[in-house]
Amino acid sequence: MKEGLLPIGKMAKLNHVSIPTLRLYDEIGLFKPRCVDPETGYRYYDITQNARLDMIAYMKELGMSLSEIGEALGREDITLIEELLAQKNEQLHEQMRQLKARHDAVERAIQSIERYRKSPATGTLSLEYIDRRTVWGIPCTENFYQKDIHSYEKMLMRLRENLEDAGFPQIHSYNVGTSIAREDFEQGRLAAGNIFIFAGRTVPGGQSGCRVVDSGMFACVYLDNYDDEVRGITMLREYCAVNRCRVAGDYICEVMTGFNVFDNDPRTMFLRLQVPVTFPK
Fold this sequence. Notes:
The chain has eight helices and twelve strands. By secondary structure, the chain is of the alpha+beta class. It starts with 5 loop residues before the first strand and ends with a strand.
């Protein structure tokens, strides 16, 4: 053994890394041994090199790649290290935002399925308080009420394309809503307004296209068939008239679950038709 130097096995053990890792660091020029025996090719290290190995381990823990670490240490520039760490910090924040958005979407999916399991019989009317919601969407370019489900599917595909361009994870597109403007709903006109997602608490990049659906009392009817929506709209209008509810906003058809788990064609949907209402004092 070289006088005062550590063989690669001992160096690896002292620093809790593997021998192949030290060999890799040598090959890419990140961490060179103090000397290499010309006859045997054995690598030998000085114990004072532990400091650099500690720095490499620390920077890896911060999420930096080996190439980034090599660039920073090679230039011996503390400003560069700070810049790289700032970039890594923003990357981590973005990953956290994306993970939070997926978490919110999964929670909403669980809640929707639970509501489906515990919902009243299809066609049952109810009056419910619904909390404040954030939605993001696009105007409908086709009035699918005058066509069929294929027209709706085209609008859904267009929405998903826009969602992808806006940076929303696809999981958001499983909790979709469509709307009819308040005036059209009150007059009995079936005119598709917007198609949108319920964006939850976390919106990628603070999307400017979001709007808020205020909390309040909603007249609701639950359906388990897409083709029954028109009948459900009529039921809601009649319910408001009979109970002297004042329509206070746009009608919404919310797809609580749209998973194709029961059949293949057409799309299985569990719908909550809803319209915000107020009551004259």
